[in-house]
Amino acid sequence: MGEGLSRKDFLRLAAAGLGALALEKLGFGLDAVAEAAEAGKPVITVAKNQTPAALTRAAVDALGGMKRFVRPGSKVVIKPNAGWQIEPKYAATTNPAIVTEVIRLCKQAGARSIKVMDHPVDGPDELTFTRNGIKQAVEKAGARMIGGRSASLYKDIRLPRGKVLKSSQVLRDVIEADVFINVPIAKVHTAVPLTLGLKNLMGVTFDRGAWHNSPDLNQAIADYAAVVRPHLTIMDAYRILLTNGPKGPGQTRDAKMVIAGIDPVAVDAYTAQACFNMPPSRLSYLILAKAAGVGEMDLRKITVKNA
């Protein structure tokens, strides 16, 4: 998957304060992102109108299958949106059936260990994960659910090209993972119009307040995404939250879609247009992330493959 530093090694350099050198020499050194760029237009896959598990499987298979990302013996970290103490029907957190299927696909690909992690807004962690159904989904699939409320779980990292965030933290398990999979849910947000994949990364940092208290939340999202990038994004757009986000309850709609891709900006851009009829240009963090080289937001330059 590409040449140069692996994504894991790059994050270790960033944690050691050497990220700027890696950025200049290797274009972030992220193998999966480099692979997508070398192939021309980023490819995203879209599955529609099946059960959540079947949609997840179809979207990943159309992208080349989970074995494209997870090799035998891999350590995997999965990041759903598990931040709120609210039932799954309200579409504020990732659909538990989608989380179960992602774990199942990783196991079939030969993963040695699978951790499902989030730093929830509501607490305590175990009660939050139980109320939103993700803890049960993870345990049913035979993986481990970990809450990120302890500072000891994180490593400080540099954000060499950050404009409002020059440093932050990332879960140590993300740095040590062979594969990092982001599994956000598509929904509205009061601080930014939509919270999708890039903003879901707030759940792998310890000081989320630094993002909200920065001069520009959109820039903070882009600053972090320029360094901490998943190998794969699987967007839960089965039931989406249309009002009163990010926690709800509010109006929901069953879009019955799962969208997958390597390019996190492309996944977010397509989701905004397809699910919310919102031009990607309405999301300032996508404009800023594209400018930082994170990915492509121009839908004309994205290949959409129906699963």
List keywords for this structure.
single chain, 307 residues, alpha/beta, Rossmann fold, two-stranded antiparallel ribbon, 13 helices, 12 strands, globular
What does this structure look like?
The protein is an alpha/beta fold and 307 residues long. The protein has one domain: Rossmann fold (3-Layer(aba) Sandwich), CATH 3.40.50. The chain has 13 helices and twelve strands. The chain has helices at 7-15, 19-26, 31-38, 52-62, 96-108, 125-131, 134-141, 172-176, 197-200, 209-212, 217-225, 264-276, 284-291; strands at residues 43-48, 75-80, 113-118, 144-147, 154-158, 167-171, 179-183, 185-188, 194-195, 232-241, 252-261, 303-306. The strands form two sheets. Strands 1, 2, 3, 4, 7, 8, 9, 10, 11 and 12 form a ten-stranded mixed β-sheet that branches. Helix 11 (217-225) packs parallel to helix 13 (284-291). The longest helix is centred in the N-terminal third of the chain and has 13 residues, at 96-108. The protein is globular. Residues 18-34 have low confidence and may be disordered.
Topology:
Layout: H1 7-15, H2 19-26, H3 31-38, E1 43-48, H4 52-62, E2 75-80, H5 96-108, E3 113-118, H6 125-131, H7 134-141, E4 144-147, E5 154-158, E6 167-171, H8 172-176, E7 179-183, E8 185-188, E9 194-195, H9 197-200, H10 209-212, H11 217-225, E10 232-241, E11 252-261, H12 264-276, H13 284-291, E12 303-306
